[in-house]
Amino acid sequence: MKRQLILLVFSFVFAFIATETTAQETLYSPDKNLRVEIKTQAGRPMYRLWRNGEMILDYSYLDIETKESYFSNLEQVDAERKSKDYIWEQVWGEDQYVRDNYNELTITYQSKTADKYLLQICFRMYNDGMGLRYIFPEQENLKSFAISKEKTMFTIP
Description:
single chain; about 10% helix; disordered N terminus; four-stranded antiparallel sheet; 1 helix; mainly beta
């Protein structure tokens, strides 16, 4: 009976560690109507998107699969924010002047492997939508790799 109880306690502890959530970041559109929440759970970045308090996308994983599995089991190591609001003139198109107004958050992740590979995910929030991109910063220990799958999820509630 004691052995079963000990195994049960270890199972709960392991389940807690496996679902451990690290830092959570939040980014708003300039007009504050859109909000994205980003967190890392069990070494995997995920995001959730809201518009005017209503969830548009539930937690969805952000993932790049490489043949070498460099970018797995990640932890957040940095977050950098910036905002832009300027007008630029286009040579052709429907509008001559275009306003570029956004808030941006770039999160740097590091793999928990011995090589500590870096991956950045950049979120941009405009008043009418969100964009994201994966950035692979130059790093001494990673000269090349092959992306086998881009596995960004979009979980519609």
